[in-house]
Protein 1
Amino acid sequence: AAFVSTNSISQGEQAAAVWKPLFEMFGIHIDFAYRTFKWSNEAKGKAAVHCVIIGFSKMRGGERVIYDGEERVTAKNISPYLVDGPIVFVESRKTPLCDVPPLITGNRPADGGHLIIEDEDLADFIKADPLSKNYIRQFMGSEEFINNRKRWCLWLVGVSPDELRRMPNVMKRIEACKKDRERAPDEGRRKLAKTPALFREQITSEKDFIVIPAVSSERRDYIPIAFLPPSVIVSNLVTFIPNATLYHFGILTSSAHIAWTRAVCGRLKSDYRYSKDIVYNNFPWPEATEKQIAEIEKLAQEVLDARAKFPGSSLADLYDPLTMPPELLKAHNALDKATMKIYGFDKDMTKADVVAKLMKMHQLLAVAFEKNKEQ
């Protein structure tokens, strides 16, 4: 049999939901797979659908083939993620498989836009309500983070009632937020009308933190990951690690982690959807010595230093394959080489081979994790 399907059945949570019963209940294996391609038609205004074709059977023997565009690769085994690797199901996990800081989803305003201030309105808002300047923070989602666009929010955590009363424009925004929440069809959001001055969540960091965008273009060789200062409020369109180090940044921005992300993440069309429960919490981190950690931190800083040479460039500019500065690419290559060495991978391994090795690591770590939980 074969499926012609949207590519979601080989990504994220759906890969395990679709394929695990087929493998476990019927003993099938995948014979061939066409990786993601656009299936479009000539209808006016009709969007292209991103599809895969997957052939499977219970028969043993025979050639197994993966097609990717014009490329045809013979595989030893085809996993549900359409890579040549072991049959591993990366399922949703609430905590990291390895000993690393948790990844957190950013703050959801749930405000109808009333606690958000657009950059072009900022000066007039502060002029009309000078006291509000103390409670306005830069606000970032994926779009603002990647494209270096300015946006702001009213962050009114801990502000006393008498201070709020001295800011009439802020009070108008709070009142509008309250009405928006009261009209919401969702009961949970209606309850938020009792605290109309606050975002749904109020999660911040006391020091610089790592940010990973929820959606990133497949065109980039690297997912734009960066440190932000604690003054910035991040939205639920990014995820962040409050207590991360340069070492964590180095591993997360390495080619090994990007290969893992490409293999297991969900997609928005063909763009990567980064998630904590599937991608981050299941990622097999290497066992590194103090010397190796220090080396990764040094090379990670060199990546940040290379970016800093272009202060006017956004992450979108820096990581576009057509405009990526040579010194930044060189810094990433050095970091990739060091990371591969820590994993014990050959520096010339293909991305598919890296994913296959990481899948095996994940399999062993998941078994050990479950045993420790039972004890």
Protein 2
Amino acid sequence: MHTLLDPIRRGLRTAADREALVCGETRLSYRQVWARLQKLNTVLNELGTEPGDRVAILAFNSIAFVELYCGVSAAGRVQVPLNFRWADPELEYALRDSGARVLFIDREPGPLADLVDRVVRIDLGEYEGLVAAADETPYEEGAVSEDDLAGLFYTGGTTGASKGVMLTHRTLIANTFHVQMAVPLDADDVYLVMAPLFHAAGSISMLQSMFVGAKQIIVPAFDAGVVLDLMEAEGVTTTLGVPTMVAATVEEQLARPRSLAAFSMYQHGGSPIAMEVVRRGHEAFPGTEFIHLYGATETAPLATALRHEEQLLGTPIEKSAGRAVVGVDITIRDPEGNALPDGEPGEVTIRGNNIMRGYWNKPDQTDTALRNGWYWSGDLGRMDPDGHLFLLDRSKDMIISGGENIYCTEVEDALYTHPGVLEATVFGIPSEQWGEVVHAVVVLRSDTSDSAPTESDLIEHCRGKIAGYKTPRSISFRTEPLPKSGPGKVLKRELRTPFWEGRDTSI
């Protein structure tokens, strides 16, 4: 039986005096982290919480966040990490829905304070003061079961209302083992935590790093220049980012190179990546292996992995999300639940010990997502004969124009091959003739002002790469970055809504 207590306990046993967590000027060994977690155990008792109570965290990445992530669940409470980019109504919904009793927060709580029994400020030193003053309370052996609920992880809501994903200790530890099998780390690794910890992409290797006694460098908020400076200074060997983060660090490294001899693996996930970003990434980080990871909050999160993506450029496998990791099964199914043969597109369904228990307070949506032991992801994909998964789109983001299915990622890939395009996203807009047609939103590179491509230039560029019905019919240009969720996913719904006002916006 394993719980979230076990990774840090093994780190203590195998690497007690090695650095475990580094953030800013603070550097803690595994022995120090263990002592602080036992003090946090005392604090949770003194705050009046009991096993099973929900404890919310609303904060930027920090050592306190890592301690709360591990310590709340290890003490038998249920952690509720919240997206710091959400507006108050979204945060209020999650707090009410979860029934959280305590909120650890690094900013002014405002109306959120009225929804919990107690607010603990991280930014004002209250959290640190409570931990420093507390005695160490040893964890009671066997008090927490691997089948106990460890956390409610609210989905990003890019395609609808946020849902609380119920992950047990078993699912999170299973994912940790899956990640270690797919992308092994050891005690000499230095892992950079730059994706937000409230999101599965940010926390995917936290427990893995602790299990093997590796060091984690924590970045409070993503900034490409800061990230690369830290990678150089700390000898970072690996990190994971969503594609927008990868693209930003690639452009920064190409513009102002750092010495990153230790950097051996660049993992990315959270949404499909444009192949042009990988190509430029191989140029920016020539000795680094690029690894595509695919999964979802509901899978805790890892489902597939594609190693050495940079070596596969120009091959049929380059756009694959990889094969199912050891311990996970994937099948492509039609809407009736029938398994489809290789090459046929359908919904990606996933099975393994890493699958969620269900959605908190949402039995109907749970029944839709979990069927006969399989998680129905809402992603469209196909499999090749060798077991490689090719993601086509989110089912809700697929454009159907004149009866033809158009996968947004294919159009976005075509746009990204133009040297003047920095960011691009694609979605359907209404058409009286076709039902929907393809519209693109593009951010141009700043160094193309004298020769910036026009709408017609980009449309013509796409015509040479994809079928005519897939080519954008119109393009909007933005000077500011594309809007993104906390995890860094492009908020297509926000961009799409103005085009569908007064119409059916469920597409």
Protein 3
Amino acid sequence: MTNIREGLRERRGAAMLLYAILFLFFFQLLTDFIAAVYAFGLLGTSIPPQLAFVLLLFAPALLILAKRTVPAWWILGLGAVFLIARLLEVMLPTEGRMIAAGLGAGAFLLLFPLLLWRVARGVEPSTAGVTLGMGLALGVAMSMLVRAAGSGVDVTTDGNFQAIAWLLALIAAPLLWVYTDDWRFHERNYHAGRGRIVGLCVGIMAAFTLYYFSLVAPNVIARWTDANYLQVVGLAAVMIAGLALLGTLQPGLWAMISWKGLLGWNFLFALLLIQTILGHQLHFPAFLDAYPVPAHTVTIVDGALLMGFLLLSPVLIVDFMWLIQGLVDARPSLRGLGAGFALGALFLLAMTLAHIFTTVYDYIPLVGPFFRDKFWMVYLVVGVGVIGPLLLLRNQRLPAVRIPWSVTGGMAAVVVLTVALARITAATPAIPPADGTVTVLTYNIQQGYDEAGQENLRGQL
């Protein structure tokens, strides 16, 4: 058994797979948690009392009370709570799902900094950035796959396809045990001040936030921009796989990326993202006489901006690598990680609420019309949240690390399946009649929830 553990520890691909599953489950739990809270808000025109459960996201603050060392069972216990919450929450009614998903998301936000604390004191901390970055890339690609299979809805959260999540959990559980077994380190002096640690933690959470808002579900981008669904999903997935392939063929790729080059890449990416949003956003007039407002006509420029944004999107993976590596190299204390990820959770929550307020501002007390037409601003702030902490890493370079062929091959398989399923499950609306008349039916689907606040997609249909 010891030989098996040691053999897996030496396989970077196994670590990337573990992190991919953890990141995928986190995005799924966070999505279901926010959706459940939002569902209760749909039942009225005020802030729902269930919003108090968002305090579960501040679980990292518990690390501020931690001692100088932590036993391995902390990791294993949190991992068990996280995995079990992911498996059970999809079986529960909305309120139970909200609680279970909140507990699971909180467990991850407490588990993740502990894993980073362990990695910083492990055998190969210098490769942590690339390892976790490719884990995030694979996790995002897997999210694209399960959503393409359900024509936009995550198939692993419904029916017999829930077995996929159980299989992934059965893979992650022993890997988590392997990578946390036999470690109990004494706290060492850390290199960086707490301000630097907090900044890097917030940057990592900002990267999670931007992925949560966009690329874990590129079908949303396709529908919002009225672009070709298959092209958007396919290009987003192919770009991630392309980054993995380059990392396999040219392991020195990461070391060739300079600080200035990364900032320039980020600036161009953010510019294209904001311009894409502004180009498609409908600006509502303040006077009733100005209505009706014609829908935006998609132009070649709009399409070019969207494609450019997708082509540059791998920069988020590289940003994540840099931020993780900078944090690990600083060998942060548990208390520093607790404070940093607690503030990072606050950033995630604030941006998520701001995202929601751009739609429901009119009936949320104390919010008002400030968020009207401010959809672009939310993404701008999140982008600054990613780019700002990179300014702390001026003298950093990533090491040359080869991405295993097993990871690249797995990523390629995921991308091929994603594109194939996106093609198969794409909507096929009927051809409109030629008699010149159109029958219009309006119906408030309430995000797929019924009057009792329970998810009921089949009933809606």
